[in-house]
Every structure is written in C-alpha cells, then in structure tokens.
C-alpha cells in the first residue's frame, strides 16, 4: 500500500504540548517557597498556561491532521483531513471538478473556453495552466503544480495501463497525494459519491450522483427494450475532412455504442479522442443511415458535396453536429458530458420511445450538473444543429 506524507506537523504539535507541560511543572515547583496565596496564584497560573498550551497543540494537530483514503485502484493514500486546494490530472478530472467544486482548484489542465466561462464561472479563467498527465499532450508541468501548493491531485476517468505506477511516481516526485477515481458512462454516480467523500462535500456530490444515476437508468431502460435489429446504423465522424471515425468498442465511443449500432468496426483501433483515420470508400461501404459530425468537422458543407450525397444519411438529411458547449456531448473528454449525450442521442434516434424531448432533458442536465438555468433561446442555439430536420 502506498502511503503519503503529512504526519510531521502533528508530531511537532505534540512535542509543543509536552514542552509546555514541563514548563508549567517547573513554574509550579519554583513557587513552593512563596506564601500560600502566592503559591496558589502561581499554581493557578501554571495550570492555565499548561491548559492553554495543550489546547493550542490540540488545535494545531487537528488543523494539520491527516486521514487515509482508498482510491479506485485499491491504493491507500494519506491525505489532509481538511482539503482546500486541489489540482487535476487532465481534462476529465477538470470537467468533473468544474461541475462539483471549482472553488477548490489551484490550476487548470488547459485554458478555459468561452462556454466554460459562461457555465462554470469566468473567475476561474485566471488560474495557472498545468497541462495533463495523459491524452494527446501529456504535458503535465510538475514544477508549476508544486509551485501552486495543492494538497491533493485528483485523477478521474479510465484506469489506464500502468496507472498505479504513474500515480505513485508523480506522488513521490511532487510530494503531494495523488488519488484516482474510476468513472465511466455507467458509473458517474459512484464517482461523484466517492469524490464527495474525498473532499467532504457529500451533499453536492449526492445531488449530482442522484441526477446522473436516474438519467442513465431511465434512458438505458428504454434502450434495452429496442431490439438490436431495430437500432439505428450510425457513425460518428471527426476531423476537417470527416474521415476519422470513433471506433466501436473504444472508451470514447461509449454513447454511440450504447444507443446505436456503431458501424465503425475497426480492428486494432485505439481510444484516441481524435478517432481512427478511415477512407471515404470505407465510409461508403458502411453506408450509415445516421451520421454525427464532431464540432469543427464538415457538418456545414457536407450537404453540398456530391460524393457525400451517395451516403444514405447525407442524402436523407439524417446527419447532425454534436453540441460542444461547454464540452462535446459524446466524447473528448469522455466525461460526465456523456450523460447529456446519452439522453440527446437516444431521443434523436428513437423519439417515439420517450415522453420528453431533447430541449427538456438539455435544460435539466445543465440545471442539475452545472447549476445553470438555460433560457429557451440559449437552449435552441445549443441544439440547433443537433435536432431533427423538419
């Protein structure tokens, strides 16, 4: 089991208490030769001094105390009893913390975009940027993190290969406890509860956990009643040419795989947020009946492209752009935003199976997860390219 540091301050506090008691005892003995009144006064004074010193030591020990926390990897990590300064390991961790406790952050993994400033708060945009441990960049600045003096580094998301060694190495290098909380599309409720325990903010954690659990369970219940042969044949395409596909079975494809028949079966595909590069001929062979385009891909031009008109989804106008404010609803990062994506895509593909609509679940998500009340115009703008074409 891996143990962190943090007991030295407590030891110093106890030593201070012992020293104070010894001083009090010496003062009491020295007063014995005085009159009984003087002796009583000295004894009382010594007693008061000892009591005050002991109380101060106890307070100091409590303030600098530690506790142990067992993370999702089974690592037992010693952490401060009271956590007020947190650093994040990357994009998934940052997004979850933005929905939960942004006031604890001492830095960011990347600069905030305008949508993040709107939904989370512009006041956090001035925090220093540390980079991230994993992902395409892998540019985590240990020196900058250490300079920001966090009490804890939080890593949330998929348990990648070799993660235990990575986090232990980081913890030893910086001298700051590092905790991993596993989170996936089906377990975000558990992740929030664990985070609430870690940061002693159980009330807010339980609020979000209850919402995401209910949203996931109610949507999946409907999906489970739809036979496989009735699932929509879909592809999620990315890149400036629309020729990167989110492969079936990858971590980033969780929403697509759960809601549709993801036609992008690519042998040996990796779970990159950029998807896997494919040819147009491959897309034509898949011939999906529904296509989702990532933000900043070819959604706005594909309808006028003769080549793409040979694809059923494009020819029939059954193609959409994934909303991305403040984060892509499907992936990159594959974080709690996927709960919104799950609800949206299910109602887009099977509207007759649900009693509510895309606008309703969108407003509910932003209210419950970000604490943000979307106005009608804001909501419509958000889902403008993600709603059925009438």
Give a description of the structure.
With 390 residues, this protein is an alpha/beta fold. It has three domains: 57 residues; 150 residues, Rossmann fold (3-Layer(aba) Sandwich), CATH 3.40.50.1980; 158 residues, Rossmann fold (3-Layer(aba) Sandwich). Strands 6, 7, 8, 9, 10 and 11 form a six-stranded mixed sheet that branches. Strand 6 and strand 7 form a beta hairpin. Helix 13 runs antiparallel to helix 14. The N terminus is likely disordered.
Could you name the CATH class of the largest domain? Alpha Beta
Number of helices: 15
**Beta-strand percentage range:** 5-15%
**Could you tell me the radius of gyration in angstroms?**
28 Å
| N/C terminus separation | 59 Å
Global mean pLDDT: 86
How is the CATH topology of the largest domain named?
Answer: Rossmann fold
User: How is the biggest beta sheet arranged?
Assistant: 6 strands, mixed
CATH architecture of the largest domain, by name, is: 3-Layer(aba) Sandwich
Q: Can you say what the CATH homologous superfamily of the largest domain is?
A: Nitrogenase molybdenum iron protein domain
- Count of beta strands: 11
Q: How does the overall form come out from the CA principal axes?
A: globular
Weakly predicted, low-confidence segments:
1-62
Helix/strand class: alpha/beta
Tell me the count of domains: 3
H and E order:
HHEEEHHHEHEHHEEHEEHEHHEHHH
Helical amount among residues, as a percent range? 40-55%
């Amino acid at each position: 089991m891996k143990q962190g540091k943090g007991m030295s301050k407590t030891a110093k506090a106890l030593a201070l208490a012992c020293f104070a008691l010894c001083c009090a005892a010496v003062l009491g003995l020295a007063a014995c030769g005085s009159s009984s009144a003087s002796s009583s006064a000295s004894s009382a004074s010594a007693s008061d001094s000892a009591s005050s010193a002991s109380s101060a030591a106890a307070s100091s020990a409590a303030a600098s105390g530690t506790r142990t926390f067992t993370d999702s990897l089974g690592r037992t990590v010693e952490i401060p009893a009271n956590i007020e300064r947190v650093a994040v390991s990357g994009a998934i961790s940052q997004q979850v913390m933005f929905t939960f406790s942004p006031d604890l952050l001492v830095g960011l993994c990347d600069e905030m975009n305008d949508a993040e400033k709107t939904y989370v708060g512009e006041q956090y945009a001035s925090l220093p940027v540390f980079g991230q441990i994993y992902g395409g960049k892998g540019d985590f600045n240990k020196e900058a993190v250490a300079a920001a003096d966090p009490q804890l580094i939080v890593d949330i998301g998929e348990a990648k290969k070799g993660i235990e060694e990575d986090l232990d190495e980081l913890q030893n290098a910086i001298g700051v406890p590092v905790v991993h909380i596993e989170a996936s599309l089906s377990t975000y409720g558990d992740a929030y509860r664990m985070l609430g325990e870690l940061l002693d903010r159980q009330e807010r954690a339980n609020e979000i956990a209850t919402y995401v659990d209910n949203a996931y369970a109610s949507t999946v219940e409907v999906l489970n009643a739809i036979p496989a042969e009735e699932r929509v044949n879909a592809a999620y395409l990315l890149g400036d040419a629309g020729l990167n596909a989110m492969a079936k079975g990858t971590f980033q494809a969780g929403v697509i795989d759960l809601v549709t028949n993801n036609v992008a079966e690519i042998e040996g595909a990796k779970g990159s947020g950029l998807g896997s590069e494919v040819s147009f001929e491959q897309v034509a062979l898949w011939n999906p009946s529904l296509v989702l385009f990532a933000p900043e891909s070819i959604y706005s031009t594909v309808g006028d492209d003769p080549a793409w008109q040979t694809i059923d989804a494009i020819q029939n106008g059954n193609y959409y752009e994934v909303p991305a404010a403040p984060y892509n609803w499907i992936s990159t990062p594959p974080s709690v935003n996927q709960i919104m994506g799950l609800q949206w895509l299910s109602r887009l593909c099977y509207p007759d199976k649900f009693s509510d609509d895309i606008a309703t679940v969108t407003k509910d998500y932003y209210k419950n997860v970000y604490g943000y009340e979307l106005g009608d115009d804001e909501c419509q703008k958000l889902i403008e390219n993600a709603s059925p074409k009438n």
